[in-house]
Amino acid sequence: MFKKLSAEDFAALRGPFESGRQSPGNLGGILFLSVFLQSLVYGLEYFVAADASIYPNKERILMIHFWVTLILVILSVIYSVPAVYKRSQKCNTLL
């Protein structure tokens, strides 16, 4: 199926790169901003949604979400540094 695809099929994906919206500098700034957004989402889940939840394992869900959020925050801070994201741009895009 993928053998039938040509370069023109992916032309729409080049737009953000050519316009500069997804340049390495901009992605580093977005990753730094995402640290605060990830923390906000976890805080909202913990303080707003957890009290009204009737799930039997809500403590375990919150603990797993905490560790996943912590790992994402650490990786986002590491990859928002210019020396790191220029060296490993493929991992930065995955994040």
From TrEMBL:
UniProt KW keywords? Membrane, Transmembrane, Transmembrane helix
Transmembrane stretches in the record are 27-49, 61-85
User: What name does the UniProt record give this protein?
Assistant: Uncharacterized protein
